[in-house]
Amino acid sequence: MIIQSYFIPRRGLWLTLCALLTVLLGWQATKIKIDAGFSKLLPLQHPFMQTLLAHRDDFGGANRLLVALSVESGDIFTPRFMETLKLATDDVFFIPGVVRGQVQSLFTPNVRYIEVVENGFEGGNVVPADFQPTSQGLKQVRENILKAGIVGRLVANDFSAAMISANIQEVDPATGKKLLYTDVAAQLEDIRQRYDKDGIHVHILGFAKVVGDITDGTRQVALFFGIAIIIIALLLRWYCRSWRLAILPLMTSFVAVVWQLGLLVTLGYGIDPMSILVPFLIFAIGTSHGVQMVNGFKQQIRHGHNAKIAAENIFRQLVMPGGFALLSDTAGFLTILLIDIRIIQEVAITASIGVAMVIISNLFALPLLLSFQKQFTVKPRHNTLSHLWLSLSHCVERHTAQRILIGCAVLAAIGLWQSQHLAIGDLHSGVPELHAHSRYNQDSSFVANHFSIGSDIMGVVAETVKDGCVNPEIMRRIDAFEWDMQNTPGVHATLSLTGVSKSVNSAYNEGSPAWRVIPNNTASLAQTLTYIDTSSGLLNRTCSAIPIYLFTTDHKATTISNIVSHVKAANEKHRLLDMDCNTTESSNDCLSVTFKLATGNVGVMAATNEVVAAKQVPLLIYVYLAVAALCWMSFRSIRGTLCVILPLALVSILANGLMAILEIGLKVSTLPVVALGVGIGVDYGIYIFSRFQALQKTGLSLQESYQRTLEQTGKAVVFTGLTLSFAVSTWIFSSLKFQADMGCLLTFMFLVNMLGALIALPAFYWWLSTIKPILLSHYRRWFNKN
């Protein structure tokens, strides 16, 4: 064997190289940074995002920032509130990355009012340049707010709060470097600290603030990681009865994580807050394989071998199943690259690098470390699990196996039934990564309750011909579409150029509601749009693209899917109108309008949800095909491959059902964890079956082979499953709801994958062994007959 002829004789050299590598990559790992980016969440190839990118310069992106200032009592028309709002507006204006021309507040010049006077129209800034916070000046501002029609948008419906709105770009224009969202979040929190006092409260919403809050929560994530590692270490000490043996698998698993983080920095990557759990999953995978190595090493020592021979033997015994298990993990993780969302692809790369490091640290370095254990003895311990192994060995017998298979079928049916309720996207208002009582979600609730429009916006762009906004027929088509959207469940309010045009037309006719319509001729229509500038975000420079903003009640999966379906239905109706128009004699006068989804943060969520919905089933199929191919290469047996795959499939079904029960939506942050769960579970099955297959070849009966398999490998599997389950169960108490949810899900996966490997795998083996001769018999009959 290669370890005997090449590694063991030079073990000192190889361990020295590993130590040097650890120092080098450890130094690199200290440079790891939180690398969050809004663009990483965008499925750029999706048609919705093509619309967003095509019109981003005209109408802004989906990365919005909202800062609302509110008063505890009374209204905003006080000198102190106005002074605070002006100072806060200036602070937001100068935050790096903010698109300054698109900042809106009562104090920005792009927020104007228009009114009809005796000589025509008169307009100006809502807060005049010569504003003085006197009673007369405050009264004038109130009147201007009502004239501007910004109540519910920039001013609360009850006048208890005012809003500062801005868009953020990914690159800091001052430095030309990528924007650090953690720095932006820190500046926003500084704004809160300076102005949230004496009866004025500051509420901040936006992706930058979410990143900041999750990053702050990662400190507690590190605390829970530490607690989990301490729990694993103590249980390993109890299991190994030796600190020397307990520390080694922990050390090599930790080293794998250090190498992983160091390589990420070297390759130019960072850690996204949404993938902060991946390093622990790598540690868990490494610990699982390390426990198997230490368990086998103890057995070799108990049989009288010295440490060097024991290390050689256990490497020879476990290198193939362990190597194929880790390669299965890697192949499974790499399939996630098929999802064209950058953050998911980064998770795939991060996880794959981590598993590659586990192969080196736990399959090669750990045996070398074990070979140095001098004068090592293992005291015999009473096998307290012997009765359990005897009971489980009956799982390969007919009656027990049949009961297990029936139970698996029932569980699969229940899981499939519950999986029908698994939502694609968010199931709650606010940010699901944070608890409902978090400051961010409380701020989100305040804005939703006091403003007609909040942070959830979906933009639909009406694309038409040049100067289409002065064509009455086109504008009426857009107005009809907006009317459909206003009456769509989940849409709280709408805003578009047609609404402004109708208001101005009414104003030209003494404010009569009867004239609140689109003018019938081009000249009158153009007159209503004279004072509407492109900076308003209601039209582009050529007037060929007109956005309709849909302010949604929330961003729940059901709300988004309902709105998207209504938009598509309305667009189809207008497409049919175009077809009818083109068949008439007046086809030369036909001007088509196409309503393109989608801009805004809800548009991004809609695109992401569609990508996840389209990819979830193919992703799992690819994961299982990759794992199945490597299992077949390991066992050279279709039966063995199915024995490993079928319990994993059952756990995946049950995990989907559990997510539906726990109201965890399938989205960008959870889809990789579901896929990674397959990689975690396959290790148990491969170790169990490889040992079972080896014992079968010695001529032992099925029951005796499986009983010995459990005695040699099952103990390590049970210990690993229970230990990791118990360790991650502490995450349930995390202040980050995302970590708490993943704690529940991973606890379930660690535990049920272990049970599947111990109980379901032998039952499937019996079933496949039984039907094989039956299938061969039918095949021979058919072949002889034909």
Short description:
With 786 residues, the chain is of the alpha+beta class. Helices cover 62% and strands 8% of the residues.
Account of the protein in words:
With 786 residues, the protein is an alpha+beta fold. It is built from 24 helices and 9 strands. The chain has a 4-stranded antiparallel beta sheet with strand order 7-8-6-9. It has a 3-stranded antiparallel beta sheet with strand order 4-1-5, with helices on both faces. Strands 2-3 form a two-stranded antiparallel ribbon. The longest helix is centred in the last third of the chain and has 49 residues, at 737-785. The protein starts with a helix and ends with a helix. 48% of the residues are buried. The model has no long low-confidence stretch (mean pLDDT 82).
Feature tags:
single chain, 786 residues, alpha+beta, four-stranded antiparallel β-sheet, three-stranded antiparallel β-sheet, 24 helices, elongated
Mass-distribution shape: elongated
> Percent of residues in beta strands?
5-15%
Strand order of the largest sheet: 7-8-6-9
What is the number of strand segments? Answer: 9
Largest sheet: 4 strands, antiparallel
Overall mean pLDDT: 82
Give the C-alpha Rg.
Answer: 32 Å
Uncertain spans = none
Oligomeric grouping of the chains = single chain
End-to-end separation in angstroms reads 50 Å
Total helical segments: 24
Please bin the fraction of helical residues: 55-70%
Helix/strand/pairing category: alpha+beta
